[in-house]
Amino acid sequence: MNYLVLKYVHIVAVAASFALFFLRGLWVLGAYPPTQDKWARALPHAVDTLLLLSALGMLVMTQDHGWPGWLTVKLGLLIGYVLLGLYTLHSARTMRQKLVGLVLALLVYLFITTIAVMHHPLGIFAVI
Q: Phi/psi at 105 (nearest 5 deg)?
């Protein structure tokens, strides 16, 4: 597969993953009626799998360039994002905890995106 095609698949998966997490966050907050449909449970996992596979594919295609520092930071923050997401969607008990977890997870996600776009470990803070 062409690297550019894989990159655009990854970008679309990033946007879809963000949108689905935001929607699930609204369901958890009770701001939107939750659905018990199978697609609502399966689609986020399918999109996240596509996101991961496309990232690994791009990594394999560019392995001769080494492991840049920005990618290390991005992967570390990704672990933090996943943990915040798990907390928000499954462990947070009060509405305040759910809201704080959702906002923090979304901010981390957006920061990861700036790191990926700028190829710099400080992301948007490299401009400041």
A: -65, -45
Contact 115, 73 (CB under 8 A): yes
- Total of domains in the chain: 2
Q: Are 101 and 77 in contact (CB under 8 A)?
A: no
Residues 49 and 72 in one domain: no
Q: Which ranges of the chain would DSSP assign to H, the alpha helix?
A: 3-29, 38-61, 69-86, 95-118
User: Residues 6-50: pLDDT tens digits?
Assistant: 999 999 999 999 999 999 999 989 877 777 788 888 999 999 999
Q: Is 74 exposed, middle or buried (0-12, 13-18, 19+ CB in 10 A)?
A: buried
